[in-house]
Amino acid sequence: MAAMDDMMPVMTRAIERTAGLVRAVRQEQFGNSTPCAKFDVKDLINHLEWVAEMFESLGRKGPMTEQGPYAGDFPERAERMLAVWSRPEAWEGTSPAMGLPMNALAHMYLVDMVVHGWDLARATGQDYEPDPEALSRAFHFTEQMVEMGRQRGAFGPPVAVPDDAPQFDRLLGMIGRDPAWTP
């Protein structure tokens, strides 16, 4: 199955990078602000936990899940999500809960990992360089989906970024992040 074989290594690398950032966060950094205005660091990690749990459910053609309290287990949840998506049937058809093709959901998750990895790194002073293939896919998918993303509240108003800026900066600007953000 082309979509799965193609995307699983990219998703895995993106998740591993973000999980590494999460593992390096110190408790005293939980209250730090992030480039995502509605989240401090702890809220952002909690969001990552919820998204991993939700995409695990969606990968089983299950329902959207409600966000629970912070649990401190994002890397483990991400591993379970990857296990579900490593089954060919996860990639077939459309999500009953979201009404979108499963391949589109995989790309949504990838965008989340790439962007929130940057959010977390910026907020906690860690280095972050997205996987080049993950960045390329996230950028091209977001270009196609950005208007729907804004309508659904997933993305903010665009931030102006020069046309010749690096692709990652243009991705951040497209979804409403300022690439120059610092705490």
From TrEMBL:
Organism domain of life: Bacteria
Annotated organism of origin: Nonomuraea polychroma
Domain named Mycothiol-dependent maleylpyruvate isomerase metal-binding: residues: 13-60
Xref: InterPro entries: CHP03086, DinB/YfiT-like, Maleyloyr_isom, MDMPI_metal-binding
GO molecular function: metal ion binding
Pfam families: MDMPI_N
Protein name as catalogued: Uncharacterized protein (TIGR03086 family)
